[in-house]
Write a structure and sequence with these properties.
The chain is mainly α. It has 8 helices and no strands. The radius of gyration is 15 Å and the shape is globular.
């Protein structure tokens, strides 16, 4: 079933709003924002439901609005977070269109986004010093708890969407 443009607009705007609200809710628990990267969920969901460009639009809008309203991601981390989420939203949309399954699609989208974020972090924070591969590896390893959370929540959300 093809969605209308107005439904896609409503979904990506809701997901972009969640990109602003979820990190604020997660920060109530001390240290939880480091473990659970709260912007992943709405961007992955929007990419899967609205397609790759909906995921990109959600990632861009949500990250920019969150940075202006709450100051997070900070100016230093903004390019890293923006790149990571844009790649993640696009990959989620492409992989879900190819019927790769929610678990495999989410896992690949998150890894691709983290790899892109690791490359940007390496380019910004240590250009020409150290190994780019080590930066990417460290960035992905720090995100393992977030990957686990996404793998638990996203298939559950997709099942609920299938029933509705």
């Amino acid at each position: 079933m093809e969605m209308t443009d107005s439904k896609k607009t409503m979904i990506w705007s809701l997901c972009a709003a969640l990109c602003v609200a979820l990190p604020q809710i997660v920060r109530i628990i001390p240290g939880a924002d480091i473990v659970y990267r709260a912007m992943y969920l709405p961007v992955l969901l929007c990419g899967a439901v609205c397609g790759p460009w909906g995921g990109v639009l959600c990632a861009f809008t949500g990250t920019c609005v969150a940075a202006v309203i709450s100051g997070s991601p900070t100016v230093v981390l903004f390019p890293v977070a923006l790149t990571e989420l844009i790649v993640m939203g696009f990959a989620s949309g492409v992989l879900m269109r190819r019927k790769s399954g929610p678990v495999r699609g989410i896992l690949l989208a998150v890894f691709l986004g983290m790899i892109a974020g690791g490359f940007v972090a390496a380019a910004l924070f240590s250009p020409g010093r150290g190994s780019m591969v080590l930066w990417v590896w460290a960035y992905v390893m720090l995100g393992i708890p977030a990957i686990v959370v996404q793998l638990v929540l996203m298939p559950t959300i997709f099942k609920a969407l299938d029933y509705s």
